[in-house]
Amino acid sequence: MRSLVLPLATLALVLSLAAGSVNAHSMVTSSTPADGATVGESPERIAVALSAPMRIVSVTLRAEDGTDYAVSAMAGRSASDRLVVEPPNLPAGDYTLESRGLSGDGHTLSAALSFTVSER
């Protein structure tokens, strides 16, 4: 019986650490515009609700042709459960907003959403 205690304790520790990592990486709970949405004009703001506070390290808004648009998190580098950016006036096309950051416990996190601005 004693020979099973250490392997079982080790297995329990590994499983609990793995479960914590999985939970820490589920990020986007909702967004405006919604992921995959088509909007009739360039959004004034892009807002992403996150499942856990994240200290944003980088934000990228990229068009399908590879053009990057300058955006930054309105909360700065403070931990927040909401990412808001104000993009420039975007022409018609497909866009992806990607963010990277750190959770309160130091895990590296990322969030992404895509949307389309249709031609008027």
Q: What's a quick, concise take on this entry?
A:
The chain is α+β, with helices and mostly antiparallel strands. The protein has one helix at 2-24; strands at residues 28-32, 37-39, 46-63, 68-69, 79-85, 93-102, 108-117.
Summarize this structure as a short list of keywords or feature phrases.
120 residues, alpha+beta, 7-stranded mixed sheet, 7 strands, 19% helix, elongated
Give the helix tally.
1
Portion in beta strands: over 45%
Terminal residue distance: 73 Å
Radius of gyration using CA atoms only? 19 Å
Major β-sheet profile: 7 strands, mixed
What class do helices, strands and sheet pairing give?
Answer: alpha+beta
Arithmetic mean pLDDT = 82
Morphology call: elongated
Question: From the structure provided, what is the oligomeric state, counting identical versus distinct chains?
Answer: single chain
Q: How many extended strands?
A: 7
List segments where confidence is low: pLDDT < 50 over at least 5 consecutive residues.
11-24
Give helix and strand order, one letter per element, not per position.
Answer: HEEEEEEE
Q: Can you tell me about this structure?
A:
β3 and β4 (68-69) form a beta hairpin. The relative contact order is 0.24. The protein is elongated and about 65 Å long. The model is unreliable at 11-24 (pLDDT under 50). The protein has 120 residues and is an alpha+beta fold. The chain contains one helix and seven strands, in the order αβββββββ.
Topology record:
Blueprint: H1 2-24, E1 28-32, E2 37-39, E3 46-63, E4 68-69, E5 79-85, E6 93-102, E7 108-117
